[in-house]
Amino acid sequence: MSQQRRPLIAGNWKMNGLAAAAAEEIAELRRLLKEKETPACDVLICPPATLIAALAAAARGSSIAIGGQDCHANASGAHTGDIAAEMLKDAGATHCIVGHSERRADHGETNAIVKAKAEAALRAGLTVLVCVGETLAERDGGKTLSVISDQVKNSLPQVASAATTVIAYEPVWAIGTGKTPTPEDVAAVHAHIRAELKALMNDSEAVRILYGGSVKGSNAAELMAVENVDGALVGGASLKAADFWPIIETVI
Ligand code: PEP
């Protein structure tokens, strides 16, 4: 954790959540955050797109931001079932995740597609969270750092800046499995990402690099203490405020 970068704790609800229960989770999170006068971190919830407008309304006036989980590279057009970044913004989102490994794997999203989506998110005025991470085979094959380099170099828009761009390092094998890399492994990858960013951006030192993959209350403090870890992207443990809050508490 760094003094110069404000931590971001982001929740990715994936395809989970119905209106009534979701609003209750936001209300509970608001209540918990209110107990801290000025929370020293940013909190973001990325619910399914169907809930963005309602949760943005429920979070209004609080320090909770609402984001999308994906966007299309185009602003409009014949793309049945897709959502444009402008539409996310219109619904009340301020952020958007792109390049999550489930999108890369399930929808064949390449670095080039992820980059186009990130550009679209930035054009729409959203802060973009660009996900990168190696598979288990890549890690076992000693390819982690080269895979990460490739993803960072080829998924980030040219216009990316620290104010509008966040990187999330999520080892694919750690997502939803209960497994996490050692703090040393996380430190090595985050330092590597920071070095890659230096070659790409003027304000690379200010870019937040989140760790994601089986973060929970019991391991968050150890992971958030690692150098160059500026917060977390959390799946399963972000669904309930009672599970998400202990993770937030490690950085406020
Ligand atoms: C994720 O999918 O972004 C994620 C980190 O999931 P989990 O926390 O459930 O491993």
Keyword list:
single chain; 252 residues; alpha/beta; TIM Barrel; 15% strand; binds phosphoenolpyruvate
Task: Give a structural overview.
The protein is an alpha/beta fold. It has a single domain (8-249), classed as Alpha-Beta Barrel (TIM Barrel), CATH 3.20.20. 40% of the residues lie in helices and 15% in strands. Strands 1-2-3-4-5-6-7-8 form an eight-stranded parallel β-barrel, surrounded by eight helices. Helix 1 (19-34) packs parallel to helix 2 and helix 1 (19-34) packs parallel to helix 10. The model has no long low-confidence stretch (mean pLDDT 96).
Shape, please?
globular
Could you give the distance between the termini? 11 Å
> Which sheet architecture does the biggest sheet show?
8 strands, parallel, barrel
Average pLDDT taken over every residue: 96
